[in-house]
Amino acid sequence: ITSILSEEPDKYIKNSLRRLIEERYLLFMLKQAQIDENTTFHHLSNQQLKQLVECFKAFTFEVNGTLPIDKAFVTGGGVSLKEIWPKTMMSKIQPGLFLCGEVLDIHGYTGGYNITSALVTGHVAGNEAAIFQIE
């Protein structure tokens, strides 16, 4: 995160990190870390940066129930398939980052298509991550 933010230290954090994570989730994480979305890297304290990184790495939530099937569709979007190597599921932008399942911008109807995609891409990503070596 620091390397991305330091590229343009006078830019709002929400704009600098937009390429890293979906905007609504990013704004939620900034709120969790108690950082104003219009803060720049120059105005970010080390403690705030540490808190944001901790939010990204260890965010948890409690599931407290289910909704009916008509509410089961999730907002579309995710990492563009143009940004990953399909044979390995590795990011073209961040080597060593393997992506799969619902994090990808793949749209399908319920009834097994999404789970099939998640299982297949997860299998490929997991196997490739296991043999990946940092150069």
Describe the structure.
There is one protein chain. By secondary structure, the protein is an all-alpha fold. The protein has 5 helices and 2 strands, in the order ααααββα. It has a two-stranded antiparallel sheet.
Please give the alpha-carbon distance between the first and last residues. 21 Å
Globally, the shape reads globular
What is the helix content?
25-40%
Q: How many strands?
A: 2
Radius of gyration: 17 Å
Provide the succession of SSEs.
HHHHEEH
- What is the count of helical runs? 5
Q: Please state how the strands of the largest beta sheet are arranged side by side.
A: 1-2
Instruction: Tell me about the largest β-sheet.
Output: 2 strands, antiparallel
SS strand fraction: under 5%
What's the overall average pLDDT, rounded? 87
- Low-pLDDT residue spans: none
Q: Assign the structural class, choosing from mainly alpha, mainly beta, alpha/beta, alpha+beta, or little secondary structure.
A: mainly alpha
Write the layout of secondary structure elements.
Layout: H1 2-7, H2 13-16, H3 23-32, H4 46-58, E1 84-85, E2 90-91, H5 113-131
Antiparallel strand pairs: 1-2
Keywords:
135 residues; 39% helix; mainly alpha
Short description:
The protein is mainly alpha-helical and about 140 residues long. It is built from 5 helices and 2 strands.
